[in-house]
Amino acid sequence: MSFWENFWDIFWWFFIVYAIFAFLYALFIVIADLFRGHELSGWWKAIWFIFLAFVPFLTLLVYMIARGKGMTERSMERARRNQEEADAYIRQVATASPTEEISKAKALLDSGTISPDEFERLKTRVMS
């Protein structure tokens, strides 16, 4: 009988793979939170890392219970800051309003840089 012939062997194999990935995901989240957090001193962070190295599963559970609320708050704060930075960048690179574009074109026309025909083309392009 081969491994793939028994449904429960397949089910168990998928469950184990899922559990390993879930454990690794939680481990990386906790490590990232330890580096990101500013409340703990370096010594406390080192102690958490030592326990993560020698008793990983239990340490993950204890860390998530003891500092889970703080993890959520730090994660939400980081997401808010990232959103604000993205919004500021979008505002910075967004095109100007049609009136600003027409006033710039009018200034170019007044300085003689563009002809009246080019001014009209720019104005119709901005208005459409």
Description of the molecule:
The chain is mainly alpha-helical and about 130 residues long. About 85% of the residues lie in helices and about 0% in strands. It contains 5 helices and no strands. α1 packs antiparallel against α2, α2 crosses α3 and α4 runs antiparallel to α5. The longest helix is centred in the middle third of the chain and has 38 residues. The chain is elongated and about 80 Å long.
How large is the share of residues in beta strands?
under 5%
User: How are helices and strands ordered from N to C?
Assistant: HHHHH
Number of strands: 0
Distance between the termini: 72 Å
Largest sheet: none
Residue share in helices? over 70%
Shape: elongated
Q: Give average pLDDT, whole number.
A: 88
| SS field, number of helical segments | 5
- Uncertain parts: none
Q: Could you say which structural class the secondary elements and strand pairing correspond to?
A: mainly alpha
Radius of gyration: 29 Å
Write the layout of secondary structure elements.
Elements: H1 7-36, H2 42-54, H3 56-93, H4 98-111, H5 116-127
Question: Which terms would index this structure?
Answer:
128 residues; mainly alpha; elongated
Brief summary of the model shown:
The chain has helices spanning 7-36, 42-54, 56-93, 98-111, 116-127. With 128 residues, the protein is mainly alpha-helical.
